[in-house]
Amino acid sequence: MRGKAVVIFAVLFAFVCWNAQLASAQESAPSSKTNSSAAAKPKPESAPGGAYRLDFSVNELEDLKKVNTRQYSLNLNAGDANEVKIGTRVPVEFKQGEFQYLDVGTKIWCRLGEQGEHLVLTVHGEITNFASPDQQGKVMPLMRQLAINASTLTMPGKAMVIGSVDDPNSKRQFQLEVTVTKLK
Description:
With 184 residues, the protein is of the alpha+beta class.
């Protein structure tokens, strides 16, 4: 049973790493358009726009009451992507003498784009932590992961819940909330 859990965790970790590399490659890929009129007139969603402050809250609720809130903020130019990453890198031995480091903590990656008068926000939020002591394996640590990936239109100055997930090990729910503020 422990072997299956390790394999599932390794596959999940590889998938997350692969998606991060794919997103990075897409961000740095040069445009294949050679049309001179397109080069002279950029599209509204890719034009350099204003600067924004993004305030994220990770709300933990139990019986619909907030019991904990963690807050993260970053400044971002329209058309750019950025991330907040807080946690610990934990060495895990997969084979004798071979270690791989796992990120344990909170990671929020976001991209903000302007599309005409609208702001398009893409968010990948992930919270990873250790399972409770009574759920731990004898050899390998058991990890719990909550992830929210979304893309939506947002309005500056208004808080909005990007997504929410129920914790399968308790009666708690986690919400990822964001407020976008235009900087002057």
